[in-house]
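Revision sheet: structure tokens.
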Amino acid sequence: MDATEIKAIIKQELPKLLEEPAMRDFVLRTVSQFYAGKQETESKFDRILAELQRDREEQAKKWDEFNKKWEEYLKKSEENDKKWEEYIKKSEENDKKWEENNKKWDEFNKKWEEYLKKSEENDKKWYEQHEINKKLFLEIQKLSSKIDTRLGAMEARWGLQSEASFRNALKSLLEETFQVEVINFLEYDKQGEVFGNPDQIEIDIIIQNGVIIACEIKSSMSKSDMYTFEKKVQFYEKQENKKVNRKIVISPMVDQKAQSTAEKLGIEVFSFVEDITNLS
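Predicted:
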């Protein structure tokens, strides 16, 4: 009989044999080293259940903590959402106000530009009117000066005032107008070169930027006066050893013959100081 047949017989007969207490004890003792007993098994089972319960309680505790934290997170999230909505609302309000301010600023800039434009136009008109008034005032001043000069010349001619007073008045006006100094040249003509006999020679000299200008200021000038002025200039050039660049006569009363003589001698004739454009 082989092992297979023996195992088959054991499987067949073992249940009946286990009904006998002695046999059952024998079998239990035989297999006790391979399987735990009922008490030990129940003890292990209780421990496992206790561990599972403990783990379940810890897990539940952790889950409760997680739920609490999740609820807190949701609450904060809702608060943040609410704050964000408020921020968006305020931002939209600020954007609207900003747009309104920009619109108002654009309107202000437009009005300011219009004001500046009108101001520039008014300034331009004021400046133009000021220039017109200035020119008019200068013309009135010139006319007044010419009238005063003419009256002075007439008074000097009629003996109401001296020729020296008239000359000094025009000399001062000449200096003020052109910011120059009129130098009075006074020398004695021993040889009588100017008047034919020895006499005192007087002539006004202006020196500006190296240009020497001989000037004769009289209430009236005749043909002979022009020749006399020319001789005075020649006397000055001889005495000072200098060349006169320009010869100027200022007189409100110059007859036609004297004017022709002046042109022939290269003498510039001005009725009034205001008629002189420059002295350079």
